[in-house]
Amino acid sequence: MPRSIPQKELQISSDNPDTPELSANGGSLPNELGELRKIIVQSEEVSEVLPDALKKRAEKDNQLAEATLPLVEENIRQSVLRNPRILAEAIFPIIGPAIRKAIAEALSQMVQSLNQTLENSLSPKGLKWRLEAMQTGKPFAEVVMLNSLLYRVEQVFLIHKKTGILLQHVALNTTETQDGEMVSAMLTAIQDFVHDSFQTSEDATLDSLKVRDLSVWIENSPDAILAAVIRGNAPLSLREIFLEAIEQIQFEQEKDFHKFEGDTSVFEDTKPVLQECLQMQLGEKEKPKGSVLTPFNVLAGILGILLLVGGFFYVRDYWRWSNYVERLRSEPGIVITDAERGFFKHEIAGLRDNLAVNPEEIAGEYGFDADDVRQNWKPFQDADPKFVVQRAEKFLNPPPGVQFSFENGVLTANGAASAEWFAEAKKFALALTGVNEFRVGLTGLLIQIDAKKIVFNCGTTDYAQNQEKAISEQISNLEILIDEAPTRKSFFVAIEGYADESGTEATNAQISQARADKILTEFFAKSEKLKQNNQNFKAVGVGAGRNASECVVRFQVFLE
Amino acid sequence: MLGATGVGKTSLVRRFVQSIYSEKYHTTIGVKIDKKLVTVGETEVNLLLWDLQGEDETFKIRPAFLRGASAYFIVVDLTRHETFVTAFSIQQMVEREVGRLPFLVLFNKNDLTEQFEILPEELEQMMKYGWKMFRTSAKSGERVEEAFQKIAEKMLKTDCA
Description:
The complex is a heterodimer.
Chain A: H1 11-14, H2 29-60, H3 63-82, H4 84-122, H5 124-136, H6 140-148, E1 149-160, E2 166-171, H7 180-197, E3 208-211, E4 214-220, E5 224-232, H8 237-252, H9 254-259, H10 271-276, E6 280-282, H11 295-330, E7 334-341, E8 346-352, H12 359-365, E9 373-379, H13 385-396, E10 403-407, E11 410-414, H14 419-429, E12 437-441, H15 442-451, E13 453-455, H16 468-484, E14 491-499, H17 505-526, H18 528-532, E15 537-544, E16 552-559
Parallel strand pairs in A: 8-9, 11-12, 14-15
Antiparallel strand pairs in A: 1-2, 1-5, 1-6, 3-4, 4-5, 7-8, 10-11, 13-16, 14-16
Chain B: E1 2-3, H1 9-14, E2 18-19, H2 24-28, E3 31-40, E4 43-52, E5 72-77, H3 81-97, E6 103-108, H4 120-129, E7 133-135, H5 144-160
Parallel strand pairs in B: 1-5, 5-6, 6-7
Antiparallel strand pairs in B: 2-3, 3-4
């Protein structure tokens, strides 16, 4: 409701209605004031309706926005020129979130495209596309895009309906385009052709052409035709976009259409609108839902398996080698100086007693082939008891019944052998590695001594036949005993004479004693050594023995 | 580009225009589009040439294809008299459908002097009508460039007027 203007403001001239006063520029004052009043009232009235009018128009369509757009643009420009801070401050709250959003978007897109690239590179699809790229000479990226896009608007033609002349043409720069002008003319001709050939209603126009995955969508306005070349499957909503575009162009360039005489430059302004139409959408055509077999997973899986397998072999080899080396270390006669586990070949070197185990054979037990391990052994002699004994047996040539034992550098020969043998053995034994001392084992010796008997002719003190050997042997034994026994504080050899039951007790006692004495005397006579140790010997006559063959002299050794 | 069948419309201009469409379009759609660039003084004129299927008993030119034209050629075969007659009817049709437009008549096959069926008198008669004409030969290319130049000039003159 218009407010009424306070009347007093207008009473200036109404005082003197009969004398019209003249204003500064020659017009009559009441008239001019009346004009002024009209203007003020009008602007008051308009100011009342203006907001509503604007709102109503804005709700109806966007013509108002279109009309005021140049104004707003100019306003913004002026504002920025005069004082940029005003707008900057106004926009500031938006910038932060906008930037964040843009970054997030860019990142996710990057990841997406990375995923896609990976997928496309490694999948059989991707490899097929690489082949295609090589064959057709197109860049791989383009082949990927062509194969994976849902749709893409490649070209847009703006055509003057009446003449069929091309007014504007936009295209994606990756597309090859034929001469736009000829294409537009032909398109127009086709429109007419269809119209004439297929009895459609007068105002019906061609909507679209389609061949395989390429379509041409056509939108009409009274004076213009918009033809868009689309590759792929576009949603119907895309048509809306084209429709809006052509309506906008029709509205803006209406006059230019009617005036058109062939000068297309006036339609340059439509380019941005047309470029808006060059839309595209990439998409996944077939994607299995939540497939585990993504290329990344598969790759990781393969790598993982390779690692596992490799790792297994590595560890196994490591353990084998360790065990092998440990085994060799524990073997007598082997000294390892160098053990290296290489990647394919291993090396081991050291000293080896030729009586020790063969490392090459042992290697087989641990799963190594002869080629796997390089063996480098230098010979040496180990003073391990086992080896010493083996060597002693080999070199000293002991008679049967003699066994060696070795401890702390002392080689002991146990058993009975001739004194000569013992003497020789002693010489050579000291030459053996590790042998510092050679001894005769007492146990064996004692057995031998105790076992020996000298046989007499019964009833006499005469030796039986062939007792010389036994005598000399026993002498040897006793000599050895003396040699070996120094470590013992004392020993005592009882030379026991025996008799058979043929005589009386007295005669038996006598004859047995005589026999023992004889032996004793003979021993002392034959061996200086024995003589010198005579205090250790005693001749004893035992008398009748238990057996008839007891016309003998036996020996018994007593040790401390 | 109008005329009876076989007068040589397409052959006449083949050398002088840019094409992306082959002649099969004549029989399928009835028109083949070519392009030619000429310079008239300071102005570059881009001519879009609609080469229409020839007219004969069975086929009449689609008036729809004439819509929006700025000028036209009518091509006549000097060795066939009937094509001359057809030219007249074509011209009348065009004027009826589209109105008065600048045009040129091209008398083609000028090289086949032995076989001429159109008499010089008839040509003079035509000139009296005020029709502009050129004698052309597709074989030699005689005067084709000139014809394009002339028609462009005519169009521009009409514009300015």
